Amino acid sequence: MAKHLQDTTTLHNSVKMPWFGLGVYKVEEGDEVYQSVKSALSKGYKSIDTAAVYGNEEGVGRAVKDSGIPREELFITTKVWNADQGYETTLAAYEESLKKLQLDYVDLYLIHWPVEGKYKETWRALEKLYIDGRVRAIGVSNFHIHHLKDVMADSEIVPMVNQVEYHPRLAQKELLAFCKGNNIQMEAWSPLMQGELLNNPVLSEIAEKHNKSVAQVILRWDLQNGVVTIPKSVKDHRIQENSEVFDFELSAEDMEKINTLNEDQRVGPDPDNFDF
C-alpha cells in the first residue's frame, strides 16, 4: 500500500509509475498551468498528467524545465487526441506533444478516447513508439472491457494503463477486476467527481472520524482500491491537501460504506457514446 507521495506502482513492463499525481484538465495555458505544476513539483509530486487537447502542454513543459528536478525523477503523461488518431497522424501528434513539452520522451502516452475504426491503428502507432524506445509506457483512456479486449486480440503489447472516470459514484468494479486480471494499471480521472461529492454525508462522516477532508478520504479510497489517482487543482493549499493522504488508512468498514455509494453515474461522456 502506498505510504508516501513518491511511492510507485510497477507497470507490467517494469516501469515505475507514481500512485499519485497532478492532473491539469481545464487548467489554462500560460501562468495558471505553469504555477499549478510548479506548486505541485515543489511539494514533492513527481507525476503530471496532461493531454494534447488540454492545450497546456507548453506551460507544463516550462514548469517542468524550470523546476530543476532531474528529468528521470519525473513521470509525465500526455494523450493523443481523437482528431489525430490513426497510424501516421498519431506518430506526428506525438512529435508535436514532445516539442510543446520540450521533452525528449514522455513516460506514458495514452489514446484519449476509443474512436471507433481508429483506435487499433492508433494503438499500432503507440506500439511502434514504445518498441523504438521513444516512450517508456503506453496505455489507453476511457476504454471499456470490450475496447480493451478488441485491442488485445491482435496487438503485440497489452496496454499498461487504462485511465478512466472513477469515483465513489462510478466504482467500475468489473472494469477494475478486468484490469487487475490483465496487469493493466487503472488510473482515475475526475476522482472527486468535479466536486459533486464533497458534501456527501457518508463521506463527511468518515472524513470527520479520520480528521481528514472528504477529498482526502476519496483519494485514499482510490489508492486502497489499487487505482492511481491524479486530482486536479490550481490552488496551492489544495494541491498540498490532496497529497496528504498517506498518513491514514480507511478501515474495511469505511471502504464498504464508500463502495455502497456507487450508482454507475458519470460526469463525463460514456466511452460507448461520445461524439468528438
From TrEMBL:
Residues with site note (Lowers pKa of active site Tyr): K79
The keyword Cell division is annotated on this UniProt entry: no
Alphabetic keyword roster: NADP, Oxidoreductase
Classification via SUPFAM superfamilies: NAD(P)-linked oxidoreductase
MF terms (GO), sorted A to Z: oxidoreductase activity, acting on the CH-OH group of donors, NAD or NADP as acceptor
PROSITE patterns associated with the record: ALDOKETO_REDUCTASE_2, ALDOKETO_REDUCTASE_3
Top-level taxon of origin: Bacteria
Domain NADP-dependent oxidoreductase, chain residue ranges per copy: 31-262
Pfam families in alphabetical order: Aldo_ket_red
Record has Metal-binding as a keyword: no
Binding sites annotated in the UniProt record for substrate: H112
Active site: residue positions: Y54 (proton donor)
Similarity comment text for this entry: Belongs to the aldo/keto reductase family.
Identification of the protein by name: Aldo/keto reductase
